[in-house]
Known about the structure:
The protein has helices spanning about 5-15, 20-35, 40-45, 55-70, 75-80, 100-110, 130-140, 150-165, 200, 205-210, 225-235, 255-260; strands spanning about 80-85, 85-90, 120-125, 140-145, 170-175, 185-190, 240-245, 265-270, 280-285. It is of the alpha/beta class.
Amino acid sequence: MTLFQLWNEGTGRLERAGAPEAGEDAKRLLLAAFDLDMVHFLMRRMEDLEESEPVIRAAADYRQMIGKRCGRMPIQQILGSQDFMGLTFRVDRHVLIPRQDTETLVETVLAAERDMSVRVLDLCTGSGCIAVSLGVLGGYEDITAADVSEEAVKVAETNARWLMGEKKIRFLRGDLFEALPRGETFDILVSNPPYIPTAVIGTLHPEVKDHEPRLALDGAADGLSFYRRISAEAGTWLRHGGRVYLEIGHDQAEAVRALLEEAGFGKVKVIKDLPGKDRVVCAELDKKREGGSHV
Length: 295
């Protein structure tokens, strides 16, 4: 048995299971099981594998991982990690897998907010990819991140320890602003909230609808539930001139713009992602209309 034969075996199983990118996924899992980089795989792929205990165990691990991928478990959950903004985040079934779409949100904040002393609030933090990326790449000194899921908060805390060392992010558990101590205010609010309409979730790929947390996907009937709540309540928690940066679905820009303007935000901008789709809405709180009550 050679590495090349194992790769072909895994590729064939994934193709029969209908998994997309079967060959690439089989290769990634093979490299992980045998702890190889691409160079050493290419050098050794046609060599007969020795029948030692470590090799037998690695082959068994590989076949087990292929089995999970045949069940359409995301490869990121199988490997336990996902790259985002040049950083490697740990992920599991309790958090949404970080996506390139969300890098647009982080890049927008990094480009616009150059003051490292601003207070940052990340709602629906999930894996912590936004908050941690802003801490590592933006150097922001005061970041609070919250999520309703206790398991997600644990994952985010692990990522912060792994990627930030002694630098701290304050993690809180609660439903949006309910997680926050009363009386606190922030300069920046960022969020990638659930925004998929409920009826659409069942049409998504099995990797998403069957393996990622529905709590992180479901934006209620029209997908706008969290934007309504954030828009309505943000004025209480933002300082004068506070800014919001929200990831959105590609067809939600005008609806989210209207919600923010109704709540007293101005200077609304829509930012497109690399494929040219609307991806981020940012806005500034109008001082004349700031305020409100905790809901």
